[in-house]
């Protein structure tokens, strides 16, 4: 005689397996979700999408990048073309939006609005290129020091300590003072020469932590070579703190370029720079503050946007801050 109880139990289990999940309310399913676990970058992007600060800074930076790439879209005036009929006594005409006299004119009769627009290119170019250079140099040296250790770590760490002993702005001034003509690429090289040390230290610490993980041990046991372990396993899992530091530092490099240009040791004419315009505007700030406020305001807005983006990325990549 067949076991009816066992058959009923088996049938019941089969029905439960194929039955739809229970619904507690209209449109609401109470069963567990079957979402796949997100990676570090997927989880960070999910977190960033819900941060207003990320979207505000991203929109500002996209606008600044468009201005830097295509300044002719925003003004048709030559920023170097001066007309002493205007000179700096011509005050801003706020009713003439996107016109040459919107921000007024400087002491040489040049449109401040056009110079602010074209000055975006030099500042953004310096900030992005210096950040890329220091991330490449510091990231590579930090990765080598953290992964190999021993005498390689000792040599690289002592070099980093020597560069840390040099004041950043003072050292950059000394380097730039050796050049008679200071163009954009000269300022980039000078800032990158002394700015890679922080990235190297951050990358070294991250690699030391990542190389002790089980997946690195497993890859080494399976016969993976050192380059493959470094670039396929260690670097992707150690680069997040470096990206955060680099994003925040980008705004600092833009400020450094403006400071050097303000002091007369950075970019020089005919290059258009916010720092140069701030330096010239500071001489007549009591009678014509608009010559200083507009380039300084654009500089502050740019640095603020990069710092906001860096803070948002840091909060998204660091689980301790959530």
Automatic annotation (TrEMBL):
Regions annotated as coiled coil: none
Signal peptide, first to last residue: none
Name of one Pfam family that matches: OppC_N
Record-level GO BP terms: transmembrane transport
Subcellular location: Cell membrane
Sequence intervals crossing the membrane: 54-74, 124-147, 159-179, 185-203, 238-256, 292-313
Membrane topology: Multi-pass membrane protein
Protein name (Swiss-Prot/TrEMBL): Nickel ABC transporter, permease subunit NikC
Organism of this sequence: Streptomyces viridochromogenes (strain DSM 40736 / JCM 4977 / BCRC 1201 / Tue 494)
Lineage: Bacteria, Bacillati, Actinomycetota, Actinomycetes, Kitasatosporales
